[in-house]
UniProtKB/TrEMBL annotation:
Organism domain of life: Eukaryota
Origin organism lineage: Eukaryota, Viridiplantae, Streptophyta, Embryophyta, Tracheophyta
Entry keyword set: Membrane, Receptor, Signal, Transmembrane
Signal peptide boundaries: 1-20
Protein's name according to its UniProt entry: Transmembrane signal receptor
Organism: Lithospermum erythrorhizon
Keyword Transmembrane: yes
Length: 252
């Protein structure tokens, strides 16, 4: 199925540069602390359930990476193609409450056993990298891609490994809304230069009464295996963050 999606990539290039008119995330340091338009459970203060950072120029950050958006189940990170990014940087994207989602297709270089799975993808990336100062031309560059097929929500970093030296980029494959269109492929969207993290809260479910508690098998950032987490999701017909401690869910 996933291989089919990659085959169809040619058909959907047009969707690749997603831009949205809604206002992007930003933050500001003020005398009393930080202010931002982050929704619960995200925040910048020490007491936030999921604490992110605010840069001097008002960008929300996780480690060195800029957070583009957060949604009810994911965090989207700006992850531009960079042929000089060490594979180990992936470790920095696993935290107490978030981890690298298995919907990312990682583009790797310098692997001990390269595969040819992503020839189409690498030629697309090549076009997008433009004049970057690294050799990714043609087959000699041996770009490998890693696609997780384990069925778990998060990438197991040990399995990605394969002793790759470089983490070139990531593409989020969004297989879209099957309800809208049965014809697999036509609604596949590719989000280039983006890395998707999944998030969770730990502890007992504390959701609004019009929300479902979704159990999340998170990952321990220190390699301790699975962590039981949860997220709240408003039921059909309701909108909101779903958490009892925040705005909950409202009809409509
Ligand atoms: C951020 O995500 C929300 C929820 O999915 C969406 O409505 C909004 O358009 C997104 N904002 C940007 C700037 O992409
Ligand atoms: C925020 O910055 C602090 C101090 O530099 C760092 O220890 C922490 O890991 C950062 N948190 C995130 C989510 O990047
Ligand atoms: C690539 O990274 C190495 C080590 O981090 C650094 O020494 C080198 O200058 C970088 N090269 C480029 C082109 O950024
Ligand atoms: C790319 O792969 C080919 C065949 O597997 C190999 O001969 C070549 O050395 C590799 N090139 C690099 C730069 O790793
Ligand atoms: C990766 O490298 C280490 C040491 O260099 C080696 O022991 C291990 O077998 C390698 N793993 C793979 C998947 O090639
Ligand atoms: C989608 O597929 C299901 C079963 O294959 C079918 O019953 C349904 O009518 C299809 N929906 C659309 C919009 O084509
Ligand atoms: C979860 O609920 C149980 C039973 O009510 C309680 O004993 C436990 O301390 C709670 N755990 C947390 C982390 O709040
Ligand atoms: C979470 O892990 C448990 C136990 O390993 C498993 O039974 C369950 O299906 C997993 N849930 C999801 C959503 O992956």
């Amino acid at each position: 199925m996933i291989h089919l999606i990659f085959f169809l990539i040619f058909l959907v290039i047009v969707t690749s540069s997603v831009s949205s008119s809604s206002s992007p995330l930003s933050c500001k340091q003020e005398s009393g602390g930080f202010s931002s338009n982050l929704p619960y459970p995200f925040g910048l203060g020490e007491k936030s359930e999921i604490k992110l950072n605010c840069s001097k120029i008002g960008e929300i950050k996780i480690g060195e990476f800029v957070v583009k958006n957060v949604t009810s189940n994911k965090i989207l990170i700006h992850f531009p193609a960079n042929c000089n990014r060490s594979f180990d940087k992936l470790n920095n994207l696993y935290g107490k409450n978030f981890g690298v989602s298995s919907r990312n297709s990682l583009l790797l270089q310098g692997c001990q056993s390269p595969s040819s799975k992503c020839l189409i993808l690498s030629s697309l990336i090549e076009n997008r990298l433009g004049s970057q100062s690294c050799d990714i031309s043609g087959l000699s560059s041996n770009i490998t891609c890693y696609i997780d097929e384990s069925g778990f929500e998060f990438l197991d970093i040990e399995k990605v490994g394969n002793n790759c030296s470089t983490l070139l980029s990531s593409v989020v494959v969004d297989a879209g809304n099957k309800k809208v269109d049965n014809n697999s492929g036509t609604d596949v969207a590719l989000n280039f230069n983006t890395l998707e993290l999944g998030w969770w809260l730990v502890g007992n479910c504390s959701c609004h009464f019009n929300a479902d508690c979704v159990i999340v098998n998170g990952t321990d950032p220190h390699g301790g295996g699975m962590v039981r987490g949860y997220r709240c999701q408003c039921r059909h017909g309701f909108t909101g963050d779903g958490f009892a401690a925040a705005t909950g869910c409202r009809a409509g």
